[in-house]
Design a protein that fits this description.
This protein has 77 residues and is mainly alpha-helical. Helix content is 90%, strand content 0%. The longest helix is centred in the last third of the chain and has 41 residues. It is elongated, with a radius of gyration of 21 Å.
Length: 77
């Protein structure tokens, strides 16, 4: 039963990923701008996403450290 649920999740995630790749491919092929401009905008979007993800990851890491420290203080480790 657990295996079937896990396989369904993996299949769903694979489908989402494949669908996103196909959608991005179609969008680039039908884009009304030049390839150079599209690549520049794509690189800019990826750079912005990377910065945002890095910032959020660092914030999450800080929150986890704080929670672990609070837990240790509470159980006196």
């Amino acid at each position: 039963m657990y295996y079937e649920e896990e396989s369904g999740t993996v299949g769903f995630l694979a489908g989402v990923l494949i669908g996103a790749l196909i959608g991005a491919s179609v969008a680039f092929l039908t884009a009304p701008q030049s390839g150079r401009r599209t690549r520049r905008r794509l690189l800019q979007a990826v750079s912005t996403a990377k910065e945002t993800a890095t910032d959020r990851w660092e914030d999450l890491a800080d929150e986890v450290r704080s929670a672990v420290d609070a837990g240790r203080k509470r159980i006196k480790i």
